[in-house]
Amino acid sequence: MTDFDELAGGDDLTSEEAARLRRVHDLLVQAGPPPELPRRLEEPDAPPDEAEVLHFPLRRRLAVTIVAAAAMVIAGFGIGFFVGHSKSKPESFVAERVVSMHGKTPGAAVGVLRVGEKDEVGNWPMQFEVRGLPTQAERNAEYELWLTKDGKPAVSCGTFRVHDNVTTVRLSVPYTFSEYDGWVVTKQAPGQEAPGEVVLTT
C-alpha cells in the first residue's frame, strides 16, 4: 500500500474520486513541504474543553453540502411561491384626509377616499375604496374619479373597474385641492372622454 492509499483510505472512493485525489496528492508532493510556520502559529490557542470538532469522511461531506444546497433552493422556491400566490391584505395606507362619497339615492353605492401625505415629487397618493357599484357589462367600460369646480367634473384623478362588491384602488394626483370644491365618480362608456353620468358624489 502506498502513502497515498494510506491517506485516502480508498475503500469508500469511486475510481474517479481516487484518480482526482491522486493527482492532487502528486502535485503536493512535487511542491514540497511548506515554509516553516512562525512561532506564534506553532502553538495556537486550544479550543474550549466543551467544543467538539466533528470530522466527516470526504463523501459524507460532499453529501452534506449537496443536501444543504438543495434545502436552500427548495426553501427559496417555497417562499417565492407563497409570496406570489398568497392573498395577503393590502399594505396599510396612512391618510391625512378622508373624504366620504355616496350615491344619488339612499342605499346606493358608497365610497371612501383617503388622501396621503404629498410625496417628494409633489404628488398626492390616494386610496379609493368603493362599495356597491355595479360591475361593467362592457369590456372597456370603467368608472372615473374627478375633482369638481362649481359641482361639475373638472380634472380626472384616474379610472378604475369593479369586479366585486368592494373595490380598492390606488391613485396619485398632482393637483392643488384648494382650487376645487368636491369629488365625483362618473360612469364612462368605452372610448368616452367627456365626463359621464355621476354615480358618486361628496
CATH level-1 class of the largest domain: Mainly Beta
Widest sheet, order of strands: 1-2-3-6
User: What would CATH call the architecture of the largest domain?
Assistant: Sandwich
Computed over alpha carbons, the radius of gyration is 35 Å
What does the main sheet amount to?
4 strands, antiparallel
Mean pLDDT: 76
Contiguous low-pLDDT stretches (5 residues minimum) are: 50-56, 73-90
Oligomer: single chain
Summarize the structure.
The chain is an alpha+beta fold.
Describe the fold and architecture.
Helices cover 27% and strands 28% of the residues. It folds into 2 domains: 3-85, no CATH class; 97-201, Immunoglobulin-like (Sandwich), CATH 2.60.40. The chain has helices at residues 3-8, 15-31, 39-42, 58-85; strands at residues 97-102, 110-115, 124-131, 142-149, 152-160, 166-173, 182-188, 197-201. Strands 1-2-3-6 form a 4-stranded antiparallel sheet, with no helix packed on it. Strand 7 (182-188) and strand 8 (197-201) form a beta hairpin. By secondary structure, the protein is α+β, with helices and mostly antiparallel strands. The chain has 4 helices and 8 strands.
Summary tags:
202 residues, 2 domains, four-stranded antiparallel β-sheet, alpha+beta, 4 helices, 28% strand, Immunoglobulin-like
Topology:
Elements: H1 3-8, H2 15-31, H3 39-42, H4 58-85, E1 97-102, E2 110-115, E3 124-131, E4 142-149, E5 152-160, E6 166-173, E7 182-188, E8 197-201
Antiparallel strand pairs: 1-2, 2-3, 3-6, 4-5, 4-7, 7-8
